[in-house]
Amino acid sequence: MKKSLLFFALAVGSYGTIHAQTTTSSVTGIVKQSTGQTTTGATIKITHQSSGATFSGSADSNGRFNIANLQEGGPYKIEVTYIGQKPVVYDNVFLKAGEALQLDPVFAESSETNLGEVVVVGRGLIDIAEDRKTPIAVSTISKQIIEEKVGAMDITASMVNTPGVYVSGQSKGFGESSMTTRGFDQSNTAFLLNGQPINGMDNGRVFWSNWSGLSDIASLVQIQRGLGSSKLAISSVGGTINFVTKSTDMQQGGFVKTTIGNDMFVKSTIAYNTGLMKSGFAVSAMVTGWQGNGYMKGTEGAGQNYFLSVGYKVNEKHNLNLMVTGAPQWHNQGFTSELSNFLRDGRKFNANVEMINGVERNVRKNYYHKPVANLNWDWTIDDKSSLSTVVYASVASGGGQSKRTEKVNPTPFLASQVNNHQWFGVVSNYNRKLNDYLNFNVGFDLRDYKGEHYIQVTDKLGQESISHEKNVNYGIMTTSNTYSTSPWKSFGDKPKTGQDRLGWDYEQMIRYAGLFGQLEFAKDGFTAFFQGSLSGQQNSRQDYFLYKLGEGKSKDVNNLGYNVKGGASYTLGNHTIFGNAGYYSRQPYQNNIFMNYMNDVNPYAVNEKILGLEAGYKFASEYFDVSVNAYRTTWADRTTGSSFTAAQKEVDKYGIDKVQVGSLIYNTNYGVKQDHQGVELELLARPFRGFELKGFASLGKWEYDGDAITIVRNENREVLETTTRDLTGVKVGDASQTSWGLGAKYKVLKGLSVDADYRRYEDLYSSLPANRPTMKLPNYDLLDAGVSYKVVLSDKNAISFRVNMNNVLDKLYISEATTNVESKGNATYWKGIDTSNKVLMGWGRTWNASVKFTF
Questions:
Q1: CA dist 635 to 187, 514, 702, 710, 825, Å?
Q2: What per-residue confidence (pLDDT) applies to 383?
Q3: Which pLDDT band holds residue 36 (cuts at 50, 70, 90)?
Q4: From residue 394, how far is each of 281, 422, 427 by CA, in Å?
Q5: Contact call for residues 792 and 751 (beta carbons, < 8 A)
Q6: How many CA atoms lie within 13 A of 815 on its CB side?
């Protein structure tokens, strides 16, 4: 009897166990490209549409995935995503108990980037907006668009068809473009490379000539306007621009590509990927060489790009990836000039081109080499937590050459302002899924920066030697040495501290530490997040020029900064509404801390205060996507600046011993308050197969408010003039406050497509001059067009062609201005602008064409 009861109990228990096991389900499958190749590293996210509970996993090296322990029933939403690809989405999926649902998602569009498929590393560090459930105002630019649209231009060319973004300065030379986001310039927009900050630590600026290789290695660019989704202690108020580069490719193959363009531009690239080897290693490498004459007269340039990525899969929990990239280059420069010069000599006029010793040459040249290396470590701790860490280093050397004279040596010579630096940092982020509804992040950001600044002779222009007023330790000195402007030689060919360092000689030291955290809730279509960060920054400088040896070290200036932001959203079907708010207290840049580039602390350099508010609506469907965003950003205690080349009237005003014709004059405005508000629209329609219609619009009202102190300096950083003025109601310049555009792409037949983009810019103003309000510039519009053709030769081989034409109608327009001349009775005008104003003309009609063979 006892044995019978025991057998019965075991049978019942076994039945209960079997029954419990069969109440759960799983989703399995293989992720592929349209070419049939499997996709490594794709993310599979499964969301229970009623409870909001989420489950996720990733495809292995064979493209396979298996997500188990799912409850039966539904409805579930299954999203398969991969950086740079359009997601594959399954809606209203129901699961049966004990069964495995087989899905084999295929990405509709094949990869069009330079190095093949991306294996995403540092996922916890790269703040892609889709990783946070609460929406923001965002535009994502795919790898295909980058390759098609950039051609012979900077990577900023891929962003021009985006609301709130204005790009100018392209005609100045290779890598000389600049961009603003919602009216805030590059120094006040955060740029991240795979989660690594790349804004200059001394002044926040980004020089695209140092990053010319981005267009070759970028998988995507994501423009997060306004508060953004970055967890770092950075002021992403204008916006956060995320560049996600190639990581190591796990599939064998490569490509060769050649691009040609106007003004003798030629660019050649070769790349190869070993694929994942039995050892667990994989290597991707790329080398590019380019040269061209430039659009403006005398703006020749040449350079190389290199990229190496080595990945190692330690085991299922640990992945390592080492990336090294750089873009050594040199290019001659153009600047703003009086409008009358462009109207007389054409828009390619360049005031920097002069006759020197019977030879016509450009006296201004930029050369730089900035290698960047980072090591990513991704650790999947368990199914609920992970840690991502990147350790990075950047060691840069180079400078900008210009014509110079000395008081004791009035004969002109060429010299470069050198800007070398060493920058090391580490960023780490821990992610923990607390439960089905709560997700938590915490991390830190450490940076150490040392910049070296001095002037060195690069060309004596026929003189035997150069005499100059050296620092207080040496008095008047004479040098006969010159130094190279080659970006490859700049690391070794430089003067030691002593008589060969002219003008100034100082070092900047910056140390930074930040803590950040985020908590996000998501359930039943409702999401909310709160985010905060605290940072400390220490600034000091060592001056070897103005102070006696041993006395040139400044005191340490310590500033504490912080930011808090939060938001919420609600999704019902295809509709989403959201709102975000944030407040920042940001430390001033070092260039604004020390007065007149001495060790005296600037009393105007206080923390900048920023308040950002934004709200939005998104609608997404099979045929139509639209987003509308409204924002208001108030920025107090700002520092702004601009520069222009001096004419004879500036020499007459300030004196020949302070300013020469063609030298730069800098305006810096302290205590500035700005108020930016506006509305943005972005839409995408797919009315029928093979046709896309895109549109964007941005309507802004950006104004200064209150008093500001303006200091005018010459190239030697000597103060020429200091004024206080009321800026209330003055329009913010350097960007179009009203812009809109339309674009269309049509696939004529298999492999052949045509596209065109139209843009209109209105309410554009000059940068803020020293003693006048900003000046309104004429409206203008542009039309770009392109053709793509791809022939698939086999499963692995293809050849593709691309032709672009920009400014098809050859419109003559002013892209930026730096002055607002008070017109006299005998003034001449062009479209209402006094022709004595300093302006920069935009590019005329340009073109480029490329051919690429993939193997």
A1: 14, 22, 11, 17, 39
A2: 86
A3: low
A4: 25, 6, 14
A5: yes
A6: 23
Residue type, 313: K
Helix (H, G, I), strand (E, B) or coil at 186: helix
E strand intervals along 655-773: 664-685, 691-705, 707-713, 719-726, 736-749, 752-765
Alpha-carbon distance of 254 to 273, in angstroms, equals 6
Q: Taking residues 21-31, what's their average pLDDT?
A: 75
Asked if 683 contacts 705 with a C-beta cutoff of 8 angstroms, the reply is no
Summarize pLDDT for 772-819 with one digit per residue, the tens: 899 999 999 999 999 999 999 987 899 999 999 999 999 999 999 999
DSSP 409-423: EEEEEEEEEEEEEEE
Tokens 């916890």 belong to residue = 124
41, with CB counted inside 10 A (0-12, 13-18, 19+), is: buried
Q: DSSP strand E in 200-335: where? A: 218-225, 239-245, 253-261, 265-273, 281-292, 301-313, 318-326, 329-332
Separation between Cα atoms, residue 354 and residue 661, nearest integer Å:
12
Entry field: residues in the chain:
855
| Interval 768-772 mean pLDDT | 82
Cis status, amide bond into 603, omega within 30 of 0: no
* Residue 43: CB atoms within 10 Å: 20
Q: Write the burial class of residue 373 (CB in 10 Å: 0-12 exposed, 13-18 middle, 19+ buried).
A: middle
Question: What pLDDT, in 10s, does the model give residues 114-165?
Answer: 333 333 455 556 666 555 667 788 888 888 888 888 888 899 999 999 999 9
Question: If we measure between CA atoms, which residue out of 435, 453, 331 comes closest to residue 397?
Answer: 453
- CA angle (691 as vertex; 687, 697 as ends), nearest 5: 80
Three-class DSSP labels, 479-539: ECCCCCCCCCCCCCCCCCCCCCCEEEEEEEEEEEEEEEEEEEEEECCEEEEEEEEEEEEEE
**Which strand (E) or helix (H) includes residue 396?**
strand 385-406
pLDDT band at 23, cuts 50/70/90?
low
Q: Which of 603, 602, 577, 576 is nearest to 591 (CA)?
A: 602
Give the integer Cα–Cα distance in Å for 183 and 192: 19
Tokens of 172: 């100045």
Q: Is the pLDDT of residue 20 over 70?
A: no
Nearest to 66 by CA among 383, 283, 524: 383
CB 219 within 8 A of CB 212: no
CA within 13 Å, CB half, 614: 33
SS (H, E, C) 23-75: CEEEEEEECECCCCCECCCCEEEEEECCCCCEEEEECCCCCEEEEEEEECEEE
Residue bearing tokens 């199914």: 383
Q: Is the pLDDT of residue 500 over 80?
A: yes
Measured between alpha carbons, how far is residue 339 from residues 414, 649, 810 in Å?
27, 16, 18
